[in-house]
Input
Amino acid sequence: MTKRTAESSNELGRQSEPSFLILTSLASGDKHGYALAKDVEAFSGVTLGPGTLYGAISRLEERGLIAPVPSDDRRQPYQITASGRTALASAVRDMRALADEGSRRLRLSVLTLRHALRPDFTELAQ
Amino acid sequence: MNVNHRYDRILRWYPANWRQRYGQGLAALLEDTYGEDQLPLRVRVSLARAGTVERAREVGVVGESANSAERLRAGSLLVLCGWTLFVVAGTAFAKFTEHWDVATPSAHRTLPAIADASAQAAGILSAIAVLVAALMTVPAVLRLLRSRGWASIRRPMLRGTLSIGVSVALFAGLVLWAHQLNLHQRNGGLALYGLAAIVTGFVVLAAMVIVTTTVITVTRKLDISRRVLSLLSSLALVMTLLMGVIAAGIGLWWASEAIYAPQFLANSIGSGIIGTSNALPPALIVAGVLMVLGLTGACTGSVRVLGGFKRARPGGHEVPGF
Output
């Protein structure tokens, strides 16, 4: 397994961290604060409070991972930068590697995963 | 209501520079999320916390974006803030524990005496350290004044000077009055004198806070050389150690008195209030809490200073992290 570097682990933190969630959201297009919060909630179930969201936005902008898009509206849209895409890709690779390692240690294959999840699907169907 | 002003009050938790850059966007987000409704309490608390964090980041107390010099400066100033709390707490301890030796059996005086002497010696050394640090910044202050920097520090300097003047005048008046009173009157017999002493205490406390704020404001504007900044930061580390000695000394003294002279603590100011035992008089508890807060601030500042030194080392990670 590729060794996880200090830089990459420092980049975005865990998948539940605001920076990672914001970059993931912006990867599919520019968004302003409200749209970001709603999108993050929709795809991750995490509700980012206004203070947390803007704290993370300022930090990401400071690092050059996102940038404001010129706008006349009072809502300020943001876009992911090339560095932001690189950082996000690196974080996703790290997570995938960790997930693969977890699966390997649990001896989970796609089939066993499906089997393990089947009761939930059955419950949902009922 | 205009969105630009509706959230002005809550956004004041954030520093001005941050508000200028992100304030409108954040206000728009609040407007979009909550419409005409009042902001829920948890959101207000969250914004207050986030704003405070941004202020701490701006001065370099927290966060990865500050460079080594900013970390050293911020850490040292945090130690100074902790020391100010220590001065307040130490003064309270000194006042409330006057003549403890008379009330303590001679056979059991050695340990509290050593603890008391250690705390006093460390207190004097820490005051000398602050004085040395102040003298080291004099050239930078003069440079600031020569470069027409007076206008930028005039208001805090005048505020600090005024607060010192009022405190000194009140304290001098109290001392003069005390000389005309007998022991009984000075120790609770004369209510008006007691009230004046409390008011003076609060004024002095407020003055210390104002002066500390002034020192922080002025220090942040100073152009301090790398060498001087390193020396100041080293002094801050020494001060934290001395504060640790003071806290340990007072803790040891307190424990010794609780064991060998509980009647002395029982007669301390505020004793007998419901929920307090003889060994834990309220006045000393308040002073102790201030001391713990001061020590916590100083330790946090020292960690920041050590982080600054680490970054400044050749091969140190000077590039801001995520």
The CA atoms of residues 8 and 90 of chain A lie 6 Å apart. Strands of chain A lie at 66-68, 78-80. The interface with chain B takes residues 10-13, 19, 32-34, 37, 49-55, 57-59, 62-63, 74-76, 87 of chain A (CB under 8 Å). Chain A has one domain: 7-125.
